[in-house]
Records
---
Amino acid sequence: MASQQGNYEELVKGLWRENPIFIQLLGLCPSLAVTNSVINAIAMGAATTFVLVGSSLLVSALRNLIPKQVRITAFIVVIATFVTVADFTLQALAPLVHKELGAFIALIVVNCIILGRQEAFAGRNPIGASVADALGMSGGFTLALLMLGSIREILGSGSLLGIPLFGAGFEPWVIMILPPGGFITIGLLLAVFAFVKQRRLRMSQERGAAAVERRAA
Amino acid sequence: MFELDWGQLLWIFTAASVVNNFTLSYFLGLCPFLGVSGRIDTALRMGAATTFVQVVTSICVWLLNTYILPHAPYLRLIAFIVAIASTVQFVEMLIKKLSPALFTALGIYLPLITTNCQILALALFQTNREYNFIEGIFFALGAGGGFTLTLVLMAGLREENNLATIPEALKGAAMSFLIAGILSMAFMGFAGLFSSTS
């Protein structure tokens, strides 16, 4: 029972509180490079989820067999194997998306979220918890990709999932689907999150101060 | 053994360093780009170490592509990543032996070069574009040079930025991304180099 609750906790923390992209600032390269449209963001999210869950499962199952000194190499080989599978599968199922994503599917190998989770979590926790953690982290990653992808596609091409949203009078902000748009979108998003967090902190402090005053009076 | 076409080599070098800059137009190597760009001198050293690893990787990848991988194409990713990891390990031992001072200065950043996605991307791009030995080396030099350039530019901008007054919410990562966005816009200007001549 206790472990059930623990697994749920591992699952939820990755979604927002420890979101890999917005909070931990990990795995930024793929998240900016492929988010110029929502469909690419979905494909990247799915591929990363597959690799992360698969390698967490395997690493956690093998955790007592892998010697400490060579663990990073062992993790990398496990990850590279899953990425190779994902790469070939996507190439067979959706050749167009695969072409669009280009080398970035292969580059999942060096996505620091994945190696980070193996080193920080799967290498020292039982299988159930590791899979829950991997699902949560990749969920948070996909969520962040979807946010970036939607903003950039709506502003940059005036459409969502390829469906035009605005009338013919809409002039697309081409800069948003070009590289600078990626940097600027994530910069502004981070600024908004920081602003909300600081405001909440200030308000709770004021409330605390008011409560102290009331008690004093 | 290889005929040298200097025009082609110059083209590869310029394209990799500024026009298709790895960091600013392909979003590769963002972690060190944001992590090590606090001070100009560390940025320079990091750039030099990365460039060196890229050149050695390029040579290894050429050897792998020519002699081993034609027999086992599905091992490509694993072979590349193992080659990169051992190169980084080798460079680490070399620097430790030759210059302990530089080794201490680089600290944790040295092993982290392994997970710099620029290096693996260089290996993959080089394979896709079928560069030969010499072209590969120029490609690696261009990529490393471009990375060093952006890293130093970013470090300079951030050093200035530390002294400026900016809104509380923008401090830290948010501001770095906005600066990178503006730098990236500036680098888009280099695309004119080729379209105007061809």
---
Amino acid sequence: MRDARPLVRALVDPVSVDRFDGADWTAVIACARAESLIGGLAHRLEGRYLPDAVADLMADARRSAAQARVHALWEAEMAGRALAGLNIPVILLKGTAYAAAGLDAADGRSIGDLDILVPRTALDRVEEALLTAGWEWVKDNAYDQLYYRRWMHELPPMIHRGRDRMIDVHHTILPPTARPKPDVEALIEDSVALANGLRVLSPPDKIVHAAAHLFADGDLAGGLRNLWDIDRLVRRYDAPAFRDRLAERARLHGLSSHVARALRLARSLYETPVDPHLAGRERLGDGLFERRLLARDGWGRECSKLLRFSFYVRSHWIRMPPLLLARHLWNKARA
Amino acid sequence: MSGPRYRADSIEKRRIVRLDGLTLLFHRPSGITHILSVPAPEILEALGDEPADAAGIVSRLAARHDMADIAEAEPVVAARLSELEAAGLVERL
Amino acid sequence: MKHAISLRIGPFGFRVGSAWPEPIIALAHLYHGYPAPHDRVADFSVRLEPERPWRRWLRPSVAIRGDFMLSDAAPMALAHGLLAAEMGMNLQMALGQRRYLLLHAATVERDGRALLLTGESGAGKSTLAALLGEHGWRLMGDEFALLDLDRGLFHSFPRAISLKNGAIALMEAQVPASRFGPRLESTPKGAIRHLRPGDGAIADMDKPARPAMILFPRFGFERAVRPVLGAEAFVRLTQASTNYVALGEPGFMALTGLVGQAPARAIDYPDGESAIALIEQLWAELKR
């Protein structure tokens, strides 16, 4: 298996797995695990006739994801309890948000750290409340602390002493050094409350955030999974009025081109029904992005190293202007 | 003078196995396993579905169990409640 | 990957790929006759790759990768390729296995009942398991014990036993040479030699067993036996498990079930012979 196409095909069209032999399954499983999509695949294949060995593995993956979801939602609950007294909006992001809001996008999804968004003005009080409630710093040294506070869009990472789980506290959704400037006040204002008092981004903002995260936050590593999130979200919310709202919010946050490219890639790979007006015409670079997303072989290795390296350099360029990047790398090397 | 009031989850949110005088407790909402010794399990039981503060819990415990030093019990119960809160098994109101 | 082998050990199938032929040849020899993965689908894939492209030929350096990896795992010399393959399979089980409750322990079986030997690394579990395997017990596993979440049975996972330093000579004296892998010198844990389980252990790899006794052995002390309370055994076993937390309530019920039904003892012993005698005595007392 030369790239991730069979995995993508299996997600889009589960019937395609009926043709798989043992070697095909072994390869697609290794590929799916490397892309953090084994849970998503397991959900898509639920109820299908599968060879016993595969059925067992898929059942393991679904059970695993379900338990990870319990832990993730509990972490959100405890963060909520720690911050309840501050009377500020606490907005869940990414996988935890999808799970808390009961969305398909959460099915089988592996959830890592807890990501929350809070108003910038409340950061000091949030930090204090978390430290009091048993969280502590992961990176204790002065340089990393300064780096995060000055250049990044989040507090330095914290970990809960007793539960050994990380939390990332964001005050915006992109680094301040990146070019697009999302309207954080608007994100917070349009956020939706859940039963337990925690909040999630509004439906169109969830998609805008996912698109920003897909491109601006990394070198597209894990991109197939991030794009799958977008596919699931779009399918859940797509409607004529929603398309207008999505275009509006993308424009407001200065992320129209990111959302457009994300929709084109989702349509191309996952056959997501997208707004052709917002997605726009195929652009230069779409093909390259698609190849980068599919660059995973049947052993779970990233193929096409040159492509991967160029995206890695590009991603750091996007987050930090070159002069700052050089200074950062110099300090890291000296430490 | 009443202290902070706490509430516990309903009983079906806990799976309990008693072993050698200790209580092994699986807390379903968190997926965390706790090992509790007297009087923590009794405090959880006493909270039941009705929130209470430390003094209130002492009265409920005295009604159900043979207790030696009721006067000394309140600070002990207050300390255990604080630990149970940190563990996520009770919530302060 | 240029060279590869697939094989099944107990319930799990592995696909091991390598940039060099030597580790695959060594695996094929050590595990000859082991069945293929169920349905020819590997549960886990392991990759032995050069740390950097030029380290394929120049001072070959083997990075251990696969479906589940440790980002800070140190690469190994090609001479230790077989050990790298074994460690790769260990990592898949420790980090990725979610069907059975996994305990760092050895298991042996007699008359359908299983004995669990658990404790710190270096306490001598592997050596004890190897010895018992040659003295009337079926080896179910020396590294990982697999506890079924539904029925509470132990399932066999008969990997090659990893013997270290002094234990190598001890077993070489009792077992034909054909059952050993190559002797690997200067590994991070000293000298290592892998011992293939006996034919009975391999033939019966799909036969589970009901837990009957839990032992916490300590090698190199004067003979002693101490009962261990169920609650203490429970806590120590959660520490010996890599997936207890991830399994949630079924894991809790399986582990409380285990300590509830199988009595636990801590045993100290000065050498292999006295260990076997002590174990036989405790096992016989069980029946009464």
---
Amino acid sequence: MTTTDVQKTPNHVATAVRDAALTALIAFGIFLPLVGFQTISNIRNELILTTRWVLLFSLVAIIGLGRLCYALAIYPALQRRALKPAKSEVPAWRAAVGKWFVPFAIGFTIVYPFIVIATSGFGGALKWVDNFGIQILIYVMLGWGLNIVVGLAGLLDLGYVAFYAVGAYSYALLAKEFGFSFWILLPLAGCLASFWGVLLGFPVLRLRGDYLAIVTLAFGEIIRIVIVNFVALTNGYAGISSIPRPSFFGIPFTADDDGFAAVFHLPFTPVYRTIFLYYLILALAFLTCYVTIRLRRLPVGRAWEALREDEIACRSLGINTTNTKLTAFAMGAMFAGFAGSFFAARQGFISPESFTFLESATILSIVVLGGMGSQIGVAIAAIAMIGGTEIMRDMDFLKDIFGSTFDPTQYRMLIFGFGMVLIMIWRPRGLISTRSPSVFLKERKSISADLVGEGHG
Amino acid sequence: MRDPADILLRVEQLTMRFGGLVAVDHLSFEARKGDITALIGPNGAGKTTVFNCITGFYKPSEGRIGLRHGGPAAWEALEPLTDSSRRHVAHADGALFLLERMPDFLVSQQARVARTFQNIRLFPGMTALENLMVAQHNRLMLASGYTLLGVLGFPSYRAAERAAVERARGWLDRVGLTDRADDPAGDLPYGAQRRLEIARAMCTEPVLLCLDEPAAGLNPRESGELNELLLSIRDDDNMSILLIEHDMSVVMEISDHIVVLDYGVKIADGSPEAVRTDEKVIAAYLGVPDEEVEKVEAEVGL
């Protein structure tokens, strides 16, 4: 049932009602088994079938009325708006937002811990800096790292978390066994991860698209399963605990006399360590971003993007596509290695549970939602996805609406999936889908996503 | 004028088989330095296959493809190089390359053979200028110290990049696309894309430029402009050009030398005038009257 001729036909109300009735019928068909019937186990552990007619019919009514409203009001309004000539000029406020957004965002991330301490005190700040700040920044960094592989070079990598795991285990094992400091192990973990990146790169060089995705997925799982089973080295599922924490350039964050608080004559609180970790990951994330932006303007970055656009043309111009792909894998893996060693240092405990496929999928969806190749888009997507799921953990106000038995955390993934569907409808190429050229003669014009290739795998 | 014995590219007994199909059958021809050599023939004659063999995209089943840099004396090294397992050899007078032994990107990087494609292969999401910058990848890569010096922002790299932009600007001027330098290549009209692809190939600073149907899809005015561009590349840049073309107005007007292929076999080789009147060529293109079929078949050797 279409609504395209709603405005022309005199009986468009009848058409709309028919349309709404049909939609309601479909909704009834779908929700009858899903919502209408419910099985609950009673005290004797027997399953009892109950019905929820009120809920079912209210859902169907909402959907039917919504469709009626859409057909009668929203759709004609959209049609009228589409007929009007498009405004070509970008409004002034948008240009201003575009200009000031990045400096403001950088400034905000720098003062964020102080804002939080000022508003919620030392006790409350711990949660906001740790759960939100650090957690989000880890994913921002991972997103930016994967962005090199997926967004710039166009190589779909579903096993990115493997390099994160390599970084984390490198730090954990080397710090525990040999007592190396965090600052030595951070670059070392990056090197080891990029070594594994190159190792993965070699067999997958000839693969494209789905095949590349499957092999990288398998690689991610191999690393995880090796970690699970190589008990002698990694302690398997039990994981590695009491990993040495990073110190403030030699001064540990302890309550002792030579600890950070005592040295700087401050009252002891665990927040100092958290704030230090926050700035550490912030610096690492900025490093990732800076290097990526820098690389994009260098021949290697242009070769990555050219590879995404057309591999055969690259070869005809004398570009060694093998090396180009391997450097992309290695750079992406290196930043994951940095993030991994930071993760191990922050948690103090790691186990294979932290490096499942779901993590790879989360990082990849951050890159895809943000817009492949866009640094700002990836950062916004990471804030929305990780911050959003964290916020949804404590949506206790929903209990006031739906009753005390309602558990909002259970609906996290549902809301999350719904949000993703909406974004994919409105912005199929991600939040920021335009590409900014790496070099220009007269003016830097952003390039529409329709022209930019998605890579072949 | 040009020395007729000054051979730049020598294709000998080139054969390419795809399973049972012989796409190119013992083809031998030569392209002279500073010439526009055209490779023509009906659809499916094997022209693009020859191109793909020369540029390393296919590995020929049999045959030898020699290319020289520098003076003609370099050809002396051909037989010793063939007997060795090497891909190229330096000579007092230049260097010699065996293209059939080289992978595609080395043909462009070391032997300096640039090519365009029948179905345009630009980087559509990158600007016209960026397309020309990618073409200078190897030189810039060296200048950026394989990325290391570039990341650190060494001035030597910045100078190299400025020079690369200037070279790109020069070529954009030559093909009349300076005004559209900052527009994505995918947004350019078809004729401009064809010209940009030629400019991109020239930015690799080749010794041999291989053009696969550069006039395909161009209107008469555009193909006239293309003729001028190709002649200017030949004369002003002393470039040798190998050309596949269907548009006879382009081929006959600008070629110095034409090689005609049919079913993977060379049926004629000579100046445009000689090829134009060659009976086998006319038969291959236009067919022959029914009563002459047997005679022509006997001539062609079927």
